[in-house]
Hints:
alpha+beta, 2 domains, 6-stranded mixed beta barrel, two-stranded antiparallel sheet, 16 helices, 12 strands, 54% helix, elongated
Amino acid sequence: MKMLLKLAFRNVFRYRRxxxxxxxxxxxxxxxxxxxxCLYNGVNTHAMDSIINTQTAHLKILAPGYFEEKDEVPLExxxxxxxxxKSLLKENKDIxxxxxxxxxxxxxxxxxxxxxxxxxAIEPEVDPLVFDIxxxxxxxxFLEPSEPKIxxxxxxxxxxxxxxxxxxxxxxxxxxxxxxxxxxxLEITGIAHTENPTVNRQTVFIxxxxxxxxxxxxxxxxxxxxxxxxxxRLSDVRESIQSRLATLGTDYEVVSFKEYASDFVELMxxxxxxxxxxxxxxxxxxxxxxxxxxxxxxxxxxxxIGMLAAMGMRKMEVMLVFVFEGAIIGLFGSLAACAxxxxxxxxLEAKGFSLxxxxxxxxxxxxxxxxxxxxxxxxxxxxxxxxxxxxVVSILASLYPAYKAVKLDPxxxxxxxx
Length: 418
């Protein structure tokens, strides 16, 4: 066996052109596959983080019936005792923060222009514990409790030509069916540019007390947003909250971010089915490269194979020489693929890339995705998978050429003129 390995190792470096071709097919094919896997994992992870940090938190406590009508942003389903619920849950060590919020349909008016938007009434002193809006302020400052001011998403502000310090009118719809609304003259105190294009494009933020007064909701809210310390304990925390809420006698709904963002989750599932084609294509490229070059090696070395057989080398040993050659090239090619995938994955994780270079029109078309910068997620598992896959594919791809080699008639092979 040791002799066969030495022979295979010598052949790998003796036929350099063939080795380089096979090595390139494996390293570039599997390297690009590793980068693709890193990007795919990163998009999934960062997309959900963006949704959690800007829209849903980890959990939402809703009044009975609200979730079914959530797309209409109704105001008739409200939580009448938000402070009592907060007090009931404050002893839960898994909860990082709970914020009372009101979501309402609205529009922003500036001069003769009016654009629809989603209004979000927040508790400025609590919101940073639950969401990342405060850290996303690119111009101006965050809200103070009860002040008659507003924060606009960056794209919405750009479309209306508004800046910090400008005044605008917020039309708040109490009932879209009866077209009952109220209007507030507000100064823009901040422009928020989050990782989520949806928030940047259509969301405004005002203090909770201001919205309660304008919408005639007294102390009522439409939701309680809950952020937890460890996402892995989501199910346990949800069950704990539900059991505590059951003592109040009202069937409050406790909804996770996965349910609230179900449309995006389904989109990711559909994309994952298509995404499987990428590694398969990379594997196919690497496999074809190995098979072609190893078959070429059989043709180039027909006389050599006949000589080995004439010297008494068994067919299985001849076959093993070719398999070992494929395994050696596969090992080095896979290591190079790991280097390519590691460097590419590291860059995507550290820097990411944006599609902004394609222009605002293309960027706006892709704004349904909850991120502007696409980042990777490099893991040791991805690199290990690439390494093992490359070696296995190389060995399997060498079997057919090896089989062809042992099928040669030694006498005819010795007569062969290469």
